[in-house]
Amino acid sequence: MERGSSLGRCRLLTACVELELTRARGPLTIGAFALGKGALATEDFRTDEQRVTRMCTEGERGHGDQRPGGSCCGSAAESTQSTRSASCCGASAAPSAGYPYGSATYVAGTVETPIGVVPQVSRDIVRGDRVGAWRVRWGIGRNDYRVRPGVYALGTPDAAAPVLVTANYKLTFDQLRSSLSGLDAWLLVVDTRGINVWCAAGKGTFCADEVARMVQQTRLAEIVRHRRLVLPQLSAPGVAAHLVKEASGFRVVFGPVRVADLPAFLAADMKADAKMRSVTFGARERAVLAPVELSVAWDRRMLLAYGCILAVSALDRDGVSFGRALRRGAPVIGAAWLALLAGGAVTPLALPWLPGRAFSMKGAVAGGVVAAGATAAFRRRLSPAARVALLAGVPAVSSYTAMNFTGCSAITSPSGVEHEMRRALPFQAAAGAVAIGAWSASRVGR
Amino acid sequence: MVGKPGGALRAMSPLRYIDDVVSLQLEVARCNGCGLCVAVCPRAVFAIADGRAALADRDACMECGACALNCVPGAISVDPGVGCAQAIIHGWLTGGDPSCDC
Q1: Which domains does chain A have, with CATH numbers?
Q2: B residues 41-60 near A, CB within 8 Å?
Q3: Which of A103, A139, A267, B51 is deepest in the core (most CB within 10 A)?
């Protein structure tokens, strides 16, 4: 999980990485999952002064979605290559410092092709890869974990071997090369600025122009005889297959969601069944993502809130008292943690069984149950006013926390989230106000 | 739910999100039956019936936009985005498009 000041920014990005890791251990994803389609890392783009700001997705997406930094092309990282990339970046791929990709430990050798030698990747995950995965998992240099874009040989592919297209996030690339034992294929790594497939597609960096540009830059047409690219299905929100064909002459076949299904997909003449095409959101995925919400407890803003609670608790008609701050404030902080636990852990885990469709409703119910339990447990020590505060406040905060879990889920639509927010926020605010009022009236700790 | 045409997902998971809210629209008259919408949708929203696309499970849609982007005749429309409360709050506060501030 992210910590300190970097926390509270992108739960989605955290979610992406967490899920990729789960899948790296369990069923694998070609698309390296991103729950929450548009998860982004704008730092990634801010540093890149030489980027071309034209959205290559302008014509494709047709909804005028100008997400910041969503330029598909013109990464300075590409500058060491030629300027063949007319389709996307034109002549602006001028030489520059370029992005340091680090040592390519995944390159095991080379293979001969009509255009010269092409690097051959190892199928093995070595210690360095594991250390790297651990590093990005804890948020250290997560946006700097990239593979140099280009074409790579997996095994000893010939001119008829399939071409598998993927993102240049190293975690994604590592999964792909390590889980296709015995398969000979070409890997075409496109430049997604080190972002996984689904996030990059949602963001517009994994797009038709970028794929076509890499096809041209790598002279793929001279390496393979066929004209077919296998793309991860989760790149489809960013890649218009017909535009790839237009720009590169290669036909796009969308593969399965999970990389584990790739061998079966290839064996079945590149046909994916319904199961291969579906994103799941099972108990395992939900359990892994719960800490994303819980980590809010030591978020900078929460620490500030704790300070405010203690300060307000210290004040009374007869002045300021440190002892009273603790006696009166600590139970409030405890209740807040209880609410975070209800909304950020109980709700995700019990999601299918909690009543209602809206996450805010599920969170309110979980919060209600937890609050009722706490009220019963502390019934001797709580005045009627304190009980009201607990029973109103915990469900309100739990509901809000659960609502934020929508970003980690693989089932919510933005229209649905907005729909539930417009209904839930007034209730959450009202219950919160009741809780504050009741607590002010209560005599706990005085 | 029984009797309604449902995607594979409906059978696999009891988890459903809010009904009747998504912006997804299918204009069957413009469909050429290519089936790409079925291939790209990670939520089994579409099916091919009588050579044309049909909405098998519209409420499962999470508005990722893959289908509309890949529909050459333009039979599908959807307002794509991120189904995340934080992103929507960010959009409200900044007056811009929903995006997670990260």
Answers
A1: 4-277 (3.40.50.11600), 283-441 (no CATH)
A2: 41-44, 60
A3: A139
